Amino acid sequence: MKVGFIGLGQMGSGMAANLIRGGHEVTVYNRTPGKMRPLVEKGAHSAGRAADACRGEAVITMLADDTAVESVVFGEEGVIKNLGKGAIHVSMSTIGIALSEKLAGAHEEAGRRFVAAPVFGRPEAAAAGNLFIVAAGAPDAVGACMPLFDALGQKTFTFGGNPRDANLIKLSGNFLIASVIEALGEAMALVGKAGNDQHRFLDLLTSTLFTAPVYKTYGGLIAGRQFEPAGFAAPLGHKDIRLALAAAESLMVPMPLASLLHDRFLSLLAGGGEKLDWSAIAQLAARDAGLTGD
Ligand code: NAP
What we know:
Helix content is about 50%, strand content about 15%. The chain has 13 helices and nine strands. It has helices at about 10-20, 35-40, 65-75, 80, 95-110, 125-130, 140-150, 165-195, 200-205, 215-225, 235-250, 255-270, 280-290; strands at about 1-5, 25-30, 45, 60, 90, 115, 120, 130-135, 155-160. The mean pLDDT is about 95.
């Protein structure tokens, strides 16, 4: 397919490379232009403006947050104004459900198609084409995107015709991952404070009752205190919990654990942790237990 790709951050660079590898004709755009060079070397066209990445059958956005998506989508230079009639905007960023609803309405009004397709998987999975994709939107539009999803992920899960549902599923999943990180941090602090080997504890967990990838990935980062370089930066984790709480507020769903996690992220960021991986909230439990001097 002829496709544009906007947002070449930790996730987007690997994803765009996989589209090229999959035989698609890709035009990339990034706010910081230097990040386009490696993709151009792999065969992509580069766009001088976001608008110039919107000339194909579809354009994918993989941007940091709601503000970034709004700034690229709306306005004279934006995605909606510059996408061809009937072309599809695939929003793969983790954004709030209110913005997703606004985007769906604005695209429909302009005669453009909109699919929300956020992803599970860290930058390594993005680079390897191993993402899990959660897609929602009009069935014909989601169907038309399948060749793109096949190049980007190992499996695509569809969640009906309302794009915001895909965003809600993604936010709920990230709330669960953050809960696991917090719980692992507390358990590791307890085990470690008593003088036990945290790696052995993790080995026990992940080879018995807790075999899921989320325990292996985050347990390893926590036991090894590997919070830099960030694969998923703490400000983005904070953003996701904030968006999960906003969704919970709009749907009148109390989520006391999400409120606790929100405070954990605030503590991490207030203490200068914005360059750390989001799993560094686990370090707060260790610090509270007097286990780390830093
Ligand atoms: P990232 O490395 O911080 O990249 C963010 C991208 O957004 C960059 O291309 C950045 O451009 C662009 N951007 C930020 N603010 C902008 C603005 N105001 N206008 C235009 N462009 C702007 O983030 P990431 O880790 O790739 O994450 C991207 C999305 O995927 C986020 O929604 C995140 O929640 C989600 N996600 C991440 C992971 C993960 O493990 N990292 C996993 C699943 C989902 P510059 O290069 O110019 O800064």
